[in-house]
Amino acid sequence: MKLRTTGLLLCLASAPLLAAEPESCRSVRFADVGWTDIAATTGLASVVLQGLGYTPTKTIASEPIVFAGLKSKQLDAYLGYWDPSQTPAITPYIQAKALQVLPTPNLDGAKYTLAVPSYAADKGLRTFADIARFRKELDGKIYGIEAGSQGNAQIKKMIDNNELGLGGFKLIESSEAGMLVEATKAFRQKRMVVFLAWEPHPMNFMMKLTYLSGGDKQFGPNYGGSKVYTVVANDFQQRCPNAGKLVGNLKYTLDMENHVMAPIMQKIDPKIAARQWLQRNPQVLEQWLDGVTTYDGKPGLSAVKAYLAQQ
């Protein structure tokens, strides 16, 4: 009996590990609202998932479509819920328990509000209340990002309600890239310009800018001081516990995101930028892969390190 039991144990030990999750979990479906910081964080997560044997995908869409996609479970995870700027848009979904916001932010210390070139601040444009005084120099324009964003909504609300004398100003909606083109052009020409800005983002070291004070009502205190949270479809972490564990483990820093975003701004593929950063900074994997295996149930950390070592 002992020999038979020993033989059975040896057979079990030599048997291949079973898949940790069903085949439906192999494709992890991320949402991205088209911001470079979300491209960076999603790129980092995607590279790690590839190293674990998953096939992550990304859908770029506006905030309303992202939250609706998580509600309908057509999307699995979104790494870019900025609180408080996106809170008005996501609150109805939270109240309806239509999706799940993970309790711990994946990034702390972020900010999101209006900014100007520092030379504009030197001329007296330092607060939200100063904007109206420079209407002529600003050509009556405030540059936002993509239509449907909560940042744009706050600007439009100020204009529509004539808050701080901004009635008659025009909100210029385009995209993150479009806004940055206009801001950069104004910097080169030393023109006055007001635009939505945030950190983390390479703009903070590419341009000498000043965040405007006095926007607590619109964007929150501390220059729109923000925390960024991960949002998942209601059943994602139960249906795909291993991938869900990784997504829940992901924590970023301002410095990390700034450095991954910089090459993305130069048109480098986000996953290539993320892979290069991870190759230089593999120490973050210890925390991210704590309790995480490969898709087929093998040790996760060694698998991802081996994947990153490949050329």
Automatic annotation (TrEMBL):
Residue limits of the ABC-type glycine betaine transport system substrate-binding domain?
27-279
Listed A to Z, the keywords are: Signal
**Would the keyword Transmembrane turn up in this protein's UniProt record?**
no
Which parts form a coiled-coil structure per UniProt?
Answer: none
Q: Which Gene3D superfamilies does the protein's record reference?
A: Glycine betaine-binding periplasmic protein, domain 2, Periplasmic binding protein-like II
Instruction: Tell me where the signal peptide lies.
Output: 1-19
Q: Which InterPro entries match?
A: ABC_choline_sub-bd, ABC_Gly_betaine_transp_sub-bd
Q: Short name of one Pfam family for this protein?
A: OpuAC
Q: What's the protein called, per UniProt? A: Choline ABC transporter substrate-binding protein
